[in-house]
TrEMBL record:
Protein name listed in UniProt: MobA-like NTP transferase domain-containing protein
One Pfam assignment: NTP_transf_3
Transmembrane annotation, as ranges: 186-206
Origin species: Sphingopyxis flava
Matches recorded under Gene3D superfamilies: Spore Coat Polysaccharide Biosynthesis Protein SpsA, Chain A
Database matches in SUPFAM superfamilies: Nucleotide-diphospho-sugar transferases (SSF53448)
InterPro entries, sorted: MobA-like_NTP_Trfase, Nucleotide-diphossugar_trans
Gene Ontology MF annotations: nucleotidyltransferase activity
UniProt domain MobA-like NTP transferase: residue ranges: 26-135
Domain of life: Bacteria
Record keyword Iron-sulfur present: no
C-alpha cells in the first residue's frame, strides 16, 4: 500500500527576500540547481515506491500547475490552500484513519531513502515528526545554521516531514492554527502545551521523545519523533546560505 502525500507550497505573509530579483512570484518556483524547488520535491516523492497520489497545496495552485518542469509526473494534483497551514491540512485529510505524508516545497534535499527512513519510523503513531539531532547534522555540515530545540540528551531541528493519521488529528491541527505564527520560537510553542511541559523542557528533565509524546497525549494521540539518519534532512531553503549549501550537496550527489 502507498501513502498519499501533500506538498505545502504556499507563500507566507509578507515579502520574501529570497525572491528579490529572481523573476518568480512564489518560493516554490525559485530555481535551485537549475530546477524549481517544487520539482525537486515532487521528483523525490514520485521516485519513492511508498508514495501514491501527490497533491500540491498553494494559494494560487493554477500557477504551479502550469509549471513545465512538473509535466509528466503521474498522479499529481493541485488544490488551492486555505489561510494557514493547519486549515489547509485539515481540508486535505483523508477520511477515517488513513495516514497522510506531509512535506514542504522547500524540502529540496528530500530523497526516496529519507522517505523510507521516516515512514518506517513513523509506524504505529497518530502523529510523527521527522527531526535531526544536532551532532548528526554537524558531523557532515558544520556550516549549516538551524533552529534548535534543546532537550535532555540532544538538540533537535525539524526535517519538514510529517505523518498524520486521518481525521483524528483535527483537534491538534486546530490548536496548531492558533500558535503557528510562533513556529520559529521553540519555547513559545512548548509553553502553549502547558507550564508543566515547559518547565520540564527548560530544566532539561525530559528527552524530545518524551516531550512530543506528552504533547500528543493532550489530544489523545500517539505522537513520536522519528530521528533521521541523514543530516541534510533538516536543511531546507530558507536563506541564501542554505541555497548555496543545498546546491553544493546536490552537486556531490551527481
Amino acid at each position: 500500500m502507498t501513502i498519499p502525500a501533500i506538498v505545502m507550497a504556499g507563500s507566507r505573509p509578507g515579502p520574501d527576500s529570497l525572491l528579490t530579483g529572481s523573476g518568480v512570484s512564489t518560493k516554490a518556483l525559485l530555481p535551485i540547481a537549475g530546477r524549481p524547488m517544487l520539482a525537486h520535491v515532487v521528483g523525490a516523492l514520485r521516485a519513492s515506491p511508498l508514495v501514491g497520489r501527490i497533491t500540491i497545496l498553494a494559494q494560487n495552485s493554477a500557477e504551479l500547475a502550469a509549471e513545465a518542469s512538473l509535466e509528466g509526473f503521474a498522479d499529481l494534483y493541485f488544490a488551492d490552500s486555505g489561510q494557514g497551514i493547519s486549515s489547509s491540512l485539515a481540508a486535505a485529510l483523508p477520511e477515517g484513519d488513513a495516514p497522510l505524508l506531509v512535506t514542504t516545497a522547500d524540502n529540496v534535499l528530500l530523497t526516496p531513502a529519507m522517505i523510507a527512513d521516516f515512514l518506517v519510523g513513523a509506524e504505529d503513531s497518530d502523529v510523527a515528526v521527522a527531526m535531526v539531532e544536532h551532532n548528526v547534522l554537524l558531523a557532515s555540515y558544520p556550516e549549516s545554521k538551524r533552529t534548535w530545540l534543546k532537550f535532555r540528551g540532544g538538540w533537535w531541528s525539524g526535517a519538514n516531514l510529517f505523518r498524520l493519521r486521518g481525521r483524528r488529528v483535527l483537534p491538534l491541527l486546530d490548536f496548531w492554527g492558533r500558535i503557528e505564527r510562533d513556529r520559529k520560537k521553540g519555547l513559545k510553542i512548548i509553553a502553549a502545551f502547558g507550564p508543566a511541559l515547559l518547565l520540564a523542557v527548560v530544566l532539561r528533565l525530559i528527552t524530545i521523545h518524551q516531550g512530543v509524546a506528552r504533547a500528543g497525549q493532550r489530544f489523545g494521540l500517539t505522537a513520536k519523533v522519528v530521528p533521521m539518519s541523514a543530516g541534510e534532512a533538516c536543511i531546507d531553503a530558507d536563506k541564501p546560505a542554505d541555497i548555496a549549501l543545498i546546491e553544493t550537496i546536490m552537486a556531490g550527489r551527481g
